[in-house]
Amino acid sequence: MFKLVTHNRHKYEEMRKIVPGLKMVDMEYPEIQANTLEEVVDFSLEYLSKVIGENFIIDDSGLFIEALNSFPGVYSAYVFDTLGNEGILKLMEEKERREAYFKTVVGIRFEGINYKLVGICHGKIAEEPKGENGFGYDPIFIPEGSEKTFAEMSTEEKNRVSHRGKAIIKLAGFMERFGVH
Ligand code: IMP
Q1: What CATH number has the domain bearing residue 161?
Q2: Segment 100-150, tens digit of pLDDT
Q3: 149-167: pLDDT as tens digits
Q4: Which is the closest atom of ligand 1 to the Cα of 158?
Q5: Which end of the chain has the least Cβ crowding within 10 Å, N or C?
Q6: Distance of CA 79 to the CA centre of its chain
């Protein structure tokens, strides 16, 4: 069985609904500054393989807002800690187009080889924060086809449409194919 290396218990709880036996290693690790989530994941997989060994996964995610030229993107964690949801809504004032997407790259280290699985969820930035569930940017993101923000959804509802849910369904397929139990 894989171990998810993360300091974010919310990510683990979401993933565990789809891959029930998943373990968690609560750990922070250095992330490089790069132009894509994929590059960040590649670096972290190499780094962690020396610390953790084999058969673990990581999740690197970001929110990409079209009217802001894909900001915060790879800077999502830093921007959340500094500007927060209120800061993003301020940047979005008077923007007519509110389209955005979440992207998750799940990195897998399995038997000495690195793999990456991607999940994307399109949607829009809400006019105001709503909901108490989830974490991070969930209160300000409304996925396509919904009236609710992620933070107004249960974990199951979010998983059905979310970036992470899509990547983890792919992970379940990977595990089936490679016989990881
Ligand atoms: P990271 O993947 O932990 O680097 O996440 C980058 C930033 O995006 C952090 O501030 C997270 O809180 C936020 N984030 C990641 N995934 C989600 C999500 O599913 N919903 C809302 N915010 C998220």
Answers
A1: 3.90.950.10
A2: 999 999 999 999 999 999 999 999 999 999 999 999 999 999 999 999 999
A3: 999 999 999 999 999 999 9
A4: 19
A5: C
A6: 15
Tell me what percent of the residues of the chain surpass a pLDDT of 70. 100
Q: Mutate which of 26, 31, 135 to test ligand 1's pocket (most atoms within 8 Å of Cβ)?
A: 135
pTM across the whole model = 0.96
Measured CA to CA, the distance from residue 179 to residue 145 in angstroms comes to: 35
| Residues with Cβ within 8 Å of residue 10, at least 6 apart in sequence | 134, 135, 136
Going from the Cα of 143 to the center of ligand 1, the distance in angstroms, rounded, reads 15
List residues near ligand 1 (CB under 6 A).
8, 59-62, 76-77, 80, 102, 134-138, 150, 164
For atom 7 of ligand 1, the residue with the nearest CA is 77
Number of domains making up the chain: 1
Beta strands in the chain (DSSP E): 3-6, 23-26, 56-65, 71-72, 99-110, 113-125, 141-143
Parent domain of 63: 3-177
